[in-house]
Design a protein that fits this description.
The chain has eleven helices and eight strands. The chain is of the alpha/beta class. Helix 4 runs antiparallel to helix 5. The longest helix has 27 residues, at 81-107. The radius of gyration is 17 Å and the shape is globular.
Length: 245
Amino acid sequence: MDAKLTTRWYSPRLEQEVLVVRWGHYGTPVLLFPTAGGDGEECERFLMIKVLAPLLEAGRIKVYSCDSVAGRIMSEGRSSPQHVSWMHAQFQAFVYKEVVPAIRRDCERDDVEVISAGSSIGAFNALAMACRYPDAFSKAICLSGTFDLVRFLPAGMYTHDFYYASPIHFLPNLDGGSQLEQLRRRFILFAFGEGRWEDPQESWRMADILGKKGVPNRVDSWGPTYDHNWVTWREMLPHYLDRMA
C-alpha cells in the first residue's frame, strides 16, 4: 500500500485537535470527506483506500481525509441550532484555510486544485466546498448525497452561518460575482443507487439548482441493485476518479 501520513493539529477555528490523513505519494489531490460524524481514517476502515490502491500506486491520485467535526456535532444531537450552524461554517473555513494549504504544501504546488469527494453527508461537504471555494476545488464527486441537512438540526432551525454553508440554500440566491463565474468553470458529479436507503431526489434537486445557475454537472443513476452503503461507494469512486484524475 502507498505511503500513509497521519497528522494532528489544533485548529483555533474548530477549537479542538483534528486528525488529517494522507495516502499516496504523487498525483491529483483528492479530499475525501467522511460520512456523518466519521473520522479521518474512516475511508481506510471501510476499505475505500484498498479499492483506490491501483490509482494510488500508479501515482495518479493522493487521497486526503479529515475528521468530520461538524457532522459529528450534528449527529450527536446535543447542541443548539446556533452552535451546529456555527460549526458547519467553521468546519468549511478550517478546510479552506488549514487543510487546503496543507495539501498544497504536501504537493509542493501553491496553485494545485483539489477534487472534493464524499458519500452521504460527506457528499454535502464535497459539494459545499466546491461551491463556496471554486478557486481551490476543480471538481466534486458526490455519491448518494444528502444535501438538505436542515431536518437534522434541532427543531429544524438554522442561522445565517448554516445558510451560507449549505449550497441548497445559498446557491439559488447567488447572482453574478467572481464566485459564480468561477463555479461555472467547475464540474459537479452526482451519483447514486436506487436501492435501499437511497434518495435520488436529493441529487436531482441539487443538480437542478446548479443547472439553473449555469454550473456544469451530471447525474448518474446506478440502478436498483445499488444501496446506500460502502459496497456501492467502493465501486463508484474508483470508477469516477479513473476518469477525472
